[in-house]
Fold these 2 entries.
Entry 1:
Amino acid sequence: MDDRSKPQSVLRHLNQEKIVFILTIVLFILFSIILPNFLAANNILSLIRSVAVLGILGLGMLIVVLGRGIDLSLVATMAISVAWSLQLMSNGMSVASAMTVGLAFAVGMSLITGVLIAYAEIPSLFATLAMATFVYGFGRAHLITGTDVVYLPPNIGWLAQLGQGHVAGIPMPIIVAAGLALIVFLFLRYTKPGRFIYAMGDNFFTARTGGVPVRPILVMQYVLAGGIAFIAGIVTSTSAQAMNTRVVNSNMIYDVILVVVLGGVGLSGGRGNVRNVIVGTLLIGVLMNGMTIMDIQYTVQNVIKSLILLLAIVVDSILNPRDEQTGQQGDI
Amino acid sequence: MATTSTLAKLRYRFVPDHVIGELLSKKWIDNAIPFLVLLCVVSLFGSLIPNFFSGSNLAIQARELGEFGLVCMAMMLVIVVGGLDLSVGSNFALGNFMTLALLNLAGWPVWLAIPAVVLICGGVGFINGFLIGYLRLRAFLTTLVTLIIVRAIVDMLLLKYSKAMSVSFYDSTVWDLIGLGGVGGVPSSFIILVVVALIGHILLTRSRPGWRAMAIGGSRRSAHNIGLSVRGTVCAAYTISGMLCGLSGVLYAARLGGAGTDTGMGLEIAALTAAVLGGNSLGGGRGSVVKALIGAVIVQVMTNGVLRIGMNSGSGPMVLGLTLLLAVFIDVRWLKNRDKLLSKVYVSPTLVELPTPRPTDAEKGGALALNDRLREVEIIGLDEVESPEDVILDENDYLYCGTRHGDIVRFSPPHYKEWEVYAHIGGSPLGMAFDKAGDLLVCVGGMGLYKIDRDRNVIKVTDETNRSAFSVVDDSRLRLADDLDIAPDGKVYFSEATIRYEMHDWPVDALESRGNGRIICYDPNTGKTHTAVRKLVFPNGVCLSHDGQAILFAESWGCRINRYWIAGPKAGTVERMVDQLPGYPDNINRASDGTYWCAIMGMRSPALDVALRMPSFRRRMARRIAPDQWLYPNLNIGCVIRFNDKGEIVESMWDKGASNHPMITSMREHKGWLYLGGITNNRIGRIRLGDWADKTWSGYRSYWGARS
């Protein structure tokens, strides 16, 4: 390789993940310099803690997106299943059985979603969109009576530690997120279904021809995502002392997509890793924390987050251009 | 052999089985399922909600539909080009806010404010379009970003101006007319929707930009490769989508006159649901204004209806989610299986009872007795022509034939060894005839009636006829023009073998044996084409009788030759001339002694004759087994027959050993020779005729006299 091609090849190696990572570090250094309290250990912990739930949901989204799908029902599943669990607990059910029922609801709903996508061949965007509205509507109409917000019942006991406890000074949500990240990483990297997910995301039809049981794997992806959403919900509710079902109507699901895509996970599947999710989560965490310290209005924060996402995908599309010949039909 | 019952005959005569297949092949049948859902939803909520059909309720609903329908059309438009626009809700809110701000705070007049708002929202659409079209970003993410940004901008603006806006009130008669009034009880927003929908429909289905948008959605790569400006069109689609959202925002502002943070919240989900419910395919290429509007009505009736019934707050989303699931499920299945279903039900055989064929045994004798006279055929152009369906000779003895490559090939006399491509038409040239000026008229399968003038220019004569009144398929286009002849007054009579199958599928029509064909007349004096006789069973050869009073035509699968009077006392009537043929008659041409030649392209077989009496058997066959294993008529061995004006068969010529020239679809007598063509042949044949034939007779002179 001669010298002239070198600068270009450096640029070629610069993918979205690296760009975002560099951006995160730059922002981190910048905030450390200009914001007095930013570098304090407490602040760093609360930074990561604030995005832990986003990161957990991002892991669920990652599993689905890798197989060329998308799950818009994560937040709805999370909110309704956990809210129902809490409601059952406050109605006197034991913690273990209430949790089981909640988890079963989350997994059951995502099982239906998976079956609809894998066997009925409904595009994932619609199946999950419809399931999100359905789960929310069903939950509000039949499961959770009374208010939008279900508070933690007093008899919750040890479970509350998931959101509020500390291990060696580190808040539990961070540990839960890190543990889940490790599990998902190992699953995707070393297990057969994990590799199959990549194969399906790369080329669905080749994977099918190659003997991958595509339909069961598809269902499994959504079930895993649903289970992870339930865990995220437990962490959320125990941290905040309540589960607000109105979160379904917020922009949260878009934030989850933002976290996943920002790190460089390809929405067309097959491209991405747990690392990407972590990078994306960290950037959002640094940003939100810095902006909160700077006392920037919530709506402006939204604009900045979106502009950064836009910047990331624009740069990515310039570095790795998609043209008319290679673009996949129906790829939105 | 059991005879068919009268009941079965009546059933196959009057039940139009073939219509099912034709309906399924129509493009608008796509809307049938969404429309059914619409009917169900309307009737359900109509029965549950009192006063649903009352005038005032309908007016309210129509006014809201005006706004929602525009947003759905905006969504449909970007879906058609293969994209998605999640920012419609925010853009709508922006339009609403800007309208109120311009009118109330800036004090602009209505006629200035509305275009300004449409342009502002179009600008948001343009940003989407630029990012997605030109920078090739993903529609989903990009519009997600604009959704959040525009929403945030609206929120910030609201924070700043909402107090100022709430105290001021815009007063104008035009504004009130838009927001509250209407024309003759029809709300103005609904009128605007209808106007926009009409324009949109015409643009999308009848104009070049619309076709380009559909092509890009259908296959972006192919559209790019044929040179369409993909990026520009995609960008334009998003821009127009933004403008529609802006217009919708204006209407909303006119109706409610207030702006809140929840304006247009979740509208993108509702619009997406509506667009997909209506049958617009995500991924592009399939969508229409009608689909968008059907979806819009369904979603609006449902969301409003659930609220009105008074179910608790969760039930609305629940019902909406379930409906979306169901609709997408049906739509996906329908798209996937429609072609399968169509190919299974399109072939719709009918009951045919062919009369017993005339005997052809060599021992019994008779005009049709098998002989071996075609064994002596001289071969012309072996392996040089492919599928010469018809042959014809001009006054200078040049021999012409069509080939399946769309050429007219000309062989030179006297030995017919040298040949050249006389003209290239395309399609499948079939029957030919010379008109008085010496121009060659050709029926081209798949294209219509064409003329090659003496300077070898190819001119389209006609490719359409009048459409029949109640036909489901558009039968105005000529699909399979087969053979022609020219009346003394210059009118061209030609046959179209079938209106239900394309050129390459013509043998499938034999499985149906329904009257799918027609005789069509082209009048050169008026330039008009009209259908003369309908419902013929594969009309094939056409020949003007020697006296010029009638057109003789063969009905191939009916094994008969008919006479259609074009002059004289019986003009306009059709009568049977030759019946009970042992095979399928093809082209008919004049013979020198006042009789007619007719080619028999294949012989009947008892198996197919029985099958023709059993339409359900043939239908089952068409559904269950692959087309190459269907029972087709034998088209390998035929013969040439000669018959006179009374319908009596005079002689026949066979190739008994099937060694030299067994397949014949056409023959021409010329100066004592008979020239033979066959659609599956790689050669032309000629045979010297007996002493009865006039050695100076030629076809051109027989029609038009000696050239002066």
Entry 2:
Amino acid sequence: MKWFDYAAPGSLSEALGLLERNPGALLLAGGTDLLVQMRARRKQADLLIDVKKAPELNELSLDAGGLTLGASVPCYRVYGNRDVARAFPALAEVAGLIGGTQIQGRASIGGNLCNAAPSADAVPLLIALSARCRIAGPGGEREMAVEDFCVAPGRNALGAGEILVSLRIPAGGAGFGAHYLRFIPRNEMDIAVVGSGVSVRLEGGVVSAARVALAAVAPTPLFAREAGDSLVGKAPDAAAIEEAARLASAAARPISDMRGPAEYRRHLCGVLTRRALTAAVAAAQGGK
Amino acid sequence: MSTQYTVVGTRPVRHDGADKVTGRAIYGGDFTAAGLLHGFILRSPHAHAAIKRIDVSKATAYPGVKAVVTADDMPPAPGDKIVDLGEGETPLSYVRGNVLASGKVLYKGHAVAAVAAVNPHVAEEAARLIEIDYEVLPCTLTAPDAMRDGAPILHADLRMKELGQKTDRVSNISDHFRHVMGDAEKGFAEAEVVVEGEFNTSTVHQGYIEPHNATALWNNDGRIHVWCSTQGSFVVRDATACVLDQPVSQVKVTPLEIGGGFGGKIPVYLEPVAALLSKKTGRPVRILMSRQDVFEGTGPTPGSHLKVKIGARRDGKIVAAQAWLAYEAGAYPGAMVGPGAMCVFAAYDIANVVIDGYDVVVNKPSTAAYRAPGATNAAFATETLMDELAAKLGMDPIELRLANAAKEGTRRADGPKFRKIGCVEVLQAMKNHPHYSAPLGGPNRGRGVAIGFWFNVGLPSSCTISVNADGTVNLVEGSTDIGGTRTSVAMQAAEVLGLRAEEVLPTVVDTDSVGFTGVTGGSRTTFATGWAAHDAAQDVVRQMKERAAKLWEAAPESVTCERGVYQSNGHSATFRELAARIGETSGPVVGRAAVNPRGVGGSFAGAIADVEVDPETGKTTVVRFTSVQDAGRAIHPSYVEGQMQGGSVQGIGWALNEEYFMNGSGAMVNSSLLDYRMPTALDLPMIDTQIVEVPNPAHPFGVRGVGEANIVPPPAALANAIHAAAGVRMRRLPMNPPAVMEAIWRKSTSPDS
């Protein structure tokens, strides 16, 4: 690893200023991906800007409309906050899935998103939850749907000088259920071979909205819109779920690598999507 | 059974326990010294390439750099000098060539140059500035590929040995040997049922958590002092001396605590390089490997390719067996196919056997020992076929094994007859274990069994015991402690002396301070160093009798010693009472022993495994696992159980997920503990253990080495359990989820059903 400078600005505006003056700088939240990448010489920077001290990126607040999740809020705060865990049980579960306990003390959901790995565990669920990104930059602020944020393996939509400030996740409420499942060969400490994040909204026993997104089967986390849409207007029975799972599998564009062959991954998309949808429907019917 | 003993068979707290659990123990990587420099090794990016030019000028000029070395800094390797460094004879040029490549690189990760600098980051940055012109050569990565005519040749000077004879054939096959007993052809003609199959196992790593490390100081007086974590301080001494062309007396090795070895911390990688950097700088130099270095630059266990065939009569008697084993040695010969061939049918009494073994070099890291090296690969094939044979015969798989089990007097195809062994007793313990008859407890579950054999070696061990005035003793030994052997060795001395285990204070010392002691490997330490401790303690007893005789003015022959109480003619004194008075006699009492014991007793182990296979994902979950092993005599049962659990877990990892995942150009693409999937605690049930004790009659306490045989059965036991659960026969390791899923698809008529 090469020498680098370190700065820990105390506010978003200070961080934006530093980033503008140092175009070669990288942003550090939990650092659980970045530092590993720097050690492996996959990334280099002359300056790391630690955004953990900016209050705007540390916000974790719940209101009637939903959740504001600061980009550098570590995972443990998500599952450790009883109100958040009750309102967004699937999100709390995913926060407990990323890495082990020590990693969760540092790693953030926002960082997981910015790292833009195709296999990121949090991203399919964020897509299923219709999360939106709040982005600040030299030209002011903008918003973006989370499914548009990752653009290539390891690359996100942030422009020069921009910072992901927070995620806004709309409240689920009654009749809403979400679930994320991943397949890993071990039971912990592993990278998803395939992940499937889903949500369903039930009204009068019929699906009024559903979203399905997949991990590790495309260059970016993949929003399988047709799979979710196929459920709308139907009762969430086994046949409807099976059809959505089939569409998710068809939408996948997996590669073969050390984590699994393409054909196997495509097959798993169907299995996991069916299982995740079944769990999400149960949650929705349970009134969560 | 062990009621005659007061210490042997008990479970005292280990002597190094407090240091280990409080983090005070000093491991190799913790070592530091005044003026320490940090080394970094530059490794080959290619699996096979000729080195055309190395230019170190930019690295040498980098601020903070103190020295750069390449193979040119090593003494020239005399063409055909052969050395024995504890693992058999090897040309010195191979040992040197693996430490720093000369002329050619033979695998990705092969060390090429090294830098010493003021800190490790500077050393790494500078090393990246070394310019090397490579001429990339085609590579060969598997034994079948490397054996074919026209395969890229790794060593132009390697001549194939064929059935014991040197040939002129330039080949990647360094050795083809054959064991024959009886007439296999005739045996198969008599067989009424035959099972056969081809099997593959992937290259796997021992997976010790502590990376390799070494610090060396080449002093101004010419002596080289090495601090490292190793399985054999004397092997490091001798190898370092050999590579650097120094007399052994010029090298002193201080072994520090070791965070796992399993056979992989016997070869030297860093020590000679650190010494060369120290020679150039006059300062101590420390080199630590990264995890990637460990995977790519140290010795894993061979990948292997096997064809095995077994023939039996309808009554279950096996009448013939044939095996063909080709093991991947990696870059230099020595694939441990020899032991694999000796073990492949060792568990069974078979009259007609033929076994062919091939030691094949490939463009992968030079392999090293790994817990019962060669045997696990072989047992995966044999024990899977035994399961098929039992099914074909309609026999219980344990009954089939019992009907053919090796016993005292059974001859192995490689020659030797077994002395007293516990194969039958292990099988009976498996049969009687509640696990074997317990309900499976759910759908998609299955149970499998397998057994395995591994040797025990003797080799030299030395030990001294000095008596302290307070009635304790200091035990000095040369066996580095990778599995609790300080305690198991000390307990054997305590038993002889009539002391408590805690009253014997063991220390593992440097190579200047104790007699030659072989590696901690071959399951030998509790056996051989324990034997040395036993003999040294007897030497102490003899001297204490003389002292008592002096104090009591009695004849030395009249003094008896029973459980540490010395008596003669109405006089009586405990060891402690006598120890307090040895100053009044002739001064210090020091017992010593140096042994090279024969009479090793190999060990049999068995495994019962229950798995659940998810029919939709192919993922195998180990639901219940029982390990059974003959320990001869369990000196410290907790550590025997620990060995059995550890070996089982490594066998499970090897079976289910671990592998070197190579790309087409010969690079390992999963060289991290994230993607090289060893099992974690969350992937395993509690491993049940049952110790069987069939004492080794040759050892003073009946010890058999227990460190290794336990890894042999698990892959086959799991393969058999997967078959019982999912109806598919797995012929390749690892049996990871995609592989099992694919087998399930192949079994059914259409994919995705």
